[in-house]
Amino acid sequence: MPDLLPHPGSPGRAASRARADGRLLVAEIFGPTFQGEGPSAGRLAAFVRLSRCQLSCVWCDTPYTWDRTRYALRAESRRMSQAEVWQAVEAIDAGLVVITGGEPLLQQDRLVWLAGMCRAAGRWTEIETNGAVVPSRAIAGANCRFNVSLKLANSGVPARRRLRPDAIRALASTGKAVWKFVVTGPADLDDCCGRTLVAGDLDRRAPGPVLVAIEGIDGSGKTTLAAALAAGLARRGIRVTGHREPSDGPAGRLLRSLSRGGDRHPVMLALLSAADRYDQQARLADQGCDLVISDRYYLSGLAYHAADGIGQLLYQRLNAGVRRPDLYLFLHLDPAIAAARLGGRVRDRWERGGIAARVPQSYQAALHLVEATEDAEVTRLDAARAPQDVLAQALTALAPLLAEHEGVPRG
Ligand code: SF4
Fold it and tell me: Which is it for strands 96-100 and 44-50: parallel, antiparallel or unpaired?
């Protein structure tokens, strides 16, 4: 797909070329100097720093291994044969060899050999990884330890990129992983202990179709964008499933019907909304498609039910077990323009004066909540522009997500 953009921190072609010809893409080999982390902290070590990383942490101290916007990566790295690497390592008088990066596991097929050489020479090997690359069976079985530095929200990297449940589980199952977190303040302690390693939280990001939620006030063009996006992606060979909320399931139909009728208790409607979402989780996990586009989802629920008097923290708790989208596309539009588009239409309680007037502000609070507490990735689209321009904005926002998703054709 020609309009899918490469991610800034993607490993790039150089690492692939190095892999293909059996060489390692190396930033530097140095030592002896002290290992500064993990169980071997304080031991003298030889360091092999490999180039390239698929993440882009804001505080990274080795950006010269991956940040092509600030560094000429070709000048900062070189391809070295196995003989050259071993000659450099052997010349360093240290019993420990630390393979670091960048992200070493991007070149893991070459590291099995290096770990074997170290073992034969009586040296111990440690591989420092960000924990977001699944280790192969070969490297998992190598004679080495994995120092895994899972990145927290303070890295500035979206959770779906830095937390790969399959990689974390695979590293944990080697029995050779030790774990490290960069903590910059008290809030990060919750991140480490409460969210990153809680299995339920990881499961919410389990592999499955990409889930994109299109959100915005009534009249902002959600349904138009959902249809255009689905058609555009399907033309490129991506298997897309459409979804909407309330859904056509039993709880969704009941919610839709009750919303059209007389006054109902807001708590009952909020419970039905959450029930509908839980009921649809299996459909959202459908392995037969690459991407689900949902016309409204949890963010709408937060906004509309808050405008109906339901606290957003309560609604958040009601929905604690439902999958969060990989991306929210939020259609930003002046409420006056949206009202003019609707032409005075009032179909249900959500479009009546009081609630409708409160929804724009509720949406802003909901956006703040999911960005602050759920690490949500939100792209705001200018919905005042022509439909084809809005579609173009949406495709640009989706590009890195699709490029990362395994199994999505790239055209
Ligand atoms: S994972 Fe490590 S090398 Fe990659 S960007 Fe983050 S800190 Fe830098």
Answer: parallel
400 lines ligand 1 (CB under 6 A): no
**DSSP states along 289-328:** -SEEEEES-HHHHHHHHHHTT--HHHHHHHTTTSPPPSEE
The Cα-based distances of 192 to 132, 153, 206, 228, 404 in angstroms read 16, 9, 18, 40, 24
* Closest by CA position to 77, among listed 33, 158, 11: 11
* Phi/psi at 352 (5° precision): -80, 160
pLDDT for residue 6? 31
Token pair, residue 297, equals 């989802």
What is the length of the chain?
411
Domain ranges of the chain: 12-198, 210-403
Q: Give the pLDDT score at 14.
A: 56
CATH code for the structural domain at 12-198: 3.20.20.70
Ligand 1 probe mutation, 48, 53, 148, most atoms within 8 A of CB: 53
Q: What is the pLDDT of residue 173?
A: 87
Query: Residue 2's pLDDT is what?
Result: 28
pLDDT at 192: 62
Q: Is CATH 3.40.50.720 correct for 210-403?
A: no
What secondary structure letter does DSSP report for 134? P
CA of 101 to the centre of ligand 1 (A): 7
Cross-strand pairs, 275? none
Host H or E run for residue 127: strand 124-129
Task: Please tell me the predicted confidence (pLDDT) of residue 283.
Answer: 84
Q: What parts of the chain have a pLDDT lower than 50?
A: 1-9, 194, 198-201, 203-206, 406-411
Evaluate: CB of 130 within 6 angstroms of ligand 1: yes
Q: State which of 103, 149, 150, 184 you would mutate to test the pocket of ligand 1, scoring each by most atoms of that ligand within 8 A of its C-beta.
A: 103
